[in-house]
Amino acid sequence: MSTPGQTVHGPFDAAVVGGGVMGCTTALFLARGGMRVALIERDALCRAASGVNAGTLTLHMTRAALVPYAMRAWQMWMETDQWLGSSVLATAAPGLSLAFTEAERELLRARAAARREYGAQIDLLERDAALAIEPGLNPAMLEAAFCRTDGFASAYLTGRAYHAALRAAGVQLFEQTAAARIDQINGHYRVHGPDNHDGSIRIDATRLVMAGGVWLEPLLAMLDVRIPVKTLVNQLIITERMPPVMRSVLSIANGLLSMKQFANGTVLIGGGWQGVGDRARGPVETIPQNLTGNLRLAQHVIPALAKARVARIWLGLEAETADAMPMIGPLPGLADAWVIGCVHSGYTSGPYMGKLLAQTMLGETPELPLFDPARLVAAAPELPHREQTP
Amino acid sequence: MSEFDVVVLGGGPAGANAALAAASTGLSVALFDENPSAGGQVYRAPIDGPGAGIDAGSGADQQAGDALRRELAASTVTTFFAHPVWAVTGEYRVDATGPHGPVHCSARALIVASGTTERVVPFEGWTTPGVIGLAAATILLKSQGMLPGRSTLVAGCGPLLAAVAAKTIEGGGKVEAIADLAGTADWARTVPALLARPDLLWQGAKWWRTIRRAGTPRLARHMIVRVEPAGERLRATLAPCEAAGHPIDGKQTTVLVDCVAVGHGLTPSTEITRLLRARHVYSRTAGGWVAVADQDGRTSRPLLYVAGDGAGIAGAAAAATHGVLAGLACALDLGASNPSRLKRRAELARKAHRQAARFGHAMAKLMALRTGHVDSIAPDTIVCRCEDVTRAEIDAACEAGAQEVNQLKAWTRCGMGPCQGRTCGDVAGELLMRRVGAASRESVGCFSARTPLRPVEVEALTGEFTYDDIPIPKAAPL
């Protein structure tokens, strides 16, 4: 039923709330599977984590149990022409994770072994072998873990690529539309957009996919599903263009560095050093000692970076569950409602995760198992107030 | 870390006067500027040592600048010149780099007087070497004592046209022509405001007398449509245009010069207040995006003030009084003793400010971005010169569905280079608004401000360290 100033769209076969890599890929494969799909995004597509992350496509930072997913996703990123249409400049490059101390060497070996168990082809290299791959490395390093399944993309291009693909697949895009409320009416879901002077938008769909990244906690609360989602505020630093100083993707044993040089000569430094921010305010500002620490670590690994000029620093929000494993699957207690998100190194694995969920929703057997969200539902309701979506 | 009651960012007439006013009430005040001395762009000091032969050390601007520098030196203000500020965070922390390494300090209140960036509406060949801004020409003339070229074309709009042309002629250079976007009628509309400032009217009259005596033609309602290399020189093609800045049919003129000095107005530099998330609006007549502020410069954020042209273009005289107002407002808000005396001082300053701003606002109108001018940019003309993004690429992104400038930035790299969109931002926003048919500049947004405010060398931030000094966080989960 429409009231004046209210526009009801649909009913769609599926409404996807959240337009990052996972929501977009799910929507894309659902549409290609024959469903009428609406995609609802508070900002523009892939402008949060999916568009501002470091674009690292690596197994060295992937949680061991996610390696099989990340390897398949890596392949998808390298073949975007076959399923996405346009490029995000995905580039294969050798990946090196480094140890500078004996303790880091132990950590490096243990982590490489754990990832190997899940199928990652990671070899340990002595210093000289690593220097042969990456001559710009600080020779003070002791050992490196080497993987060929590594590389990077230009994450800022993600939105443009998905925008074109989703339009071509007939997905109806509702950008700048923050979900304010979700009702269940007569066996379907109704997503309420914000009420503003233009009136208000309502989107009806028989299936619902929640893919809202760090905003999943308040979004799921709209369905009375209480799953805590932690927000990480990751710092990224990019330099001006400079002559070649590295040709591999570099990280350190404990995972707190990611670094690569793009074809245009800029060097991107990340690794998950934390800044100030939260899901209500978004990213706010860097913490000075974390900025210096991240830069020192980068300069320690590639000494030539001392003369690089920092062009831009920013922060991106990353979602994490209580056990730091993904939630991908049917929402408990609801019919035809699903969630996808909180995948560690989510940009690397994202497209494959979206494809798996779409397979499941289309009635196929997914190639690899999903990650049941029921395990994460908060046991005792102690909810004095419900957080508002910003 | 040094602690101050107030940190002022920018040492032009607004910032210097804000610092002096705040310090006069007994507050501890620090003043930062990336230039080697106070004065800003308008009262820029000549560099030490022999210049290139032009006498830059006389004239009213120079005297006003010297007086300001003397007053600052005699005050209690702690000055950090040659210190580019690269980050402003928290409530409030200022990070700068200086000749002796990084400097940071904290302040209870922050006054931002960061001036303006010159706008150039792109035309074919505007990135050719030898094409410079009117502001750059001013720096050469005032600070370096150097002519921009042996023969120069001066083009664009606003009072800088006459200033640059007259100073070039006085320095022994030849100005082949002045191409002014504004027509005689546009200037005539400024007369009432000009009459309020006989001193500046007199200065303008003197400039134009110099220009007339040199026989330099002024082409009213004319714009550059093309600049191309011609041997070792530049050939510029000028075309007549209508009031909105769009070229029209008519006789085109070509001039052969070694320098083209061109500027299409000034845009307030709002990176710091945007970084601190103060509220902003777009005001075409104020020059572009400005922080929302009361008449004394109080922004939407507590103890954050803006002053001078960075708060909206109103000219140097108004910047000085606006600085006084912000300095006094800051002192009052920090609980200075004898508030009634400060309020009386502020009342006088407000009166002087209204008088001064009237003239500046009239000039700002002449320099406002013209929609027809932006529409006339050709498809293969570069808009973002850091990243070589053309108008056609921007149009293609709009066609593909970009609706907001940061989305446009991600899709095209427009504004992603070292200048962070300071140069192209106003034009890119206008192109996007026109292309998508948006109702306002607000609805297509503004480039997100990011640190560092100026590019900064990695080792200037990392300093001396060993691996053990790096506080590496605990390992990520396996």
Describe this structure as you would to a colleague.
The complex is a heterodimer of chains A (390) and B (478). Helices cover 26% and strands 29% of the residues of chain A. With 390 residues, chain A is of the alpha+beta class. In chain A, strands 1, 2, 8, 9, 10, 11, 19 and 20 form an eight-stranded mixed β-sheet that branches. In chain A, α1 packs parallel to α7 (158-168), α1 (21-32) packs parallel to α10 and α3 (67-78) crosses α10. Chain A starts with 5 loop residues before the first strand and ends in a 29-residue tail after the last helix. Chain B has 478 residues and is of the alpha/beta class. Chain B is built from 16 helices and 22 strands. Chain B has helices at 13-24, 60-73, 134-144, 160-170, 184-188, 191-195, 198-213, 271-275, 316-333, 339-367, 371-375, 391-399, 405-412, 425-436, 441-444, 458-462, and strands spanning 2-9, 29-32, 78-80, 85-89, 93-98, 101-112, 116-118, 131-133, 151-156, 174-180, 218-220, 222-230, 233-240, 253-257, 259-263, 266-268, 280-283, 288-291, 304-306, 382-384, 389-390, 456-457. Chain B starts with a strand and ends in a 16-residue tail after the last helix. The model of chain B has no long low-confidence stretch (mean pLDDT 94). The interface between A and B is large, with 58 and 46 residues.
Give the gist of this structure.
The complex is a heterodimer of chains A (390) and B (478). With 390 residues, chain A is of the alpha+beta class. Chain A has helices at residues 21-32, 49-52, 67-78, 80-83, 102-117, 127-133, 158-168, 216-221, 288-301, 346-361, and strands at 6-17, 37-40, 91-92, 95-99, 122-126, 143-147, 151-152, 172-174, 181-185, 188-196, 199-210, 230-239, 249-252, 258-261, 267-270, 276-278, 282-285, 309-320, 327-330, 337-341.
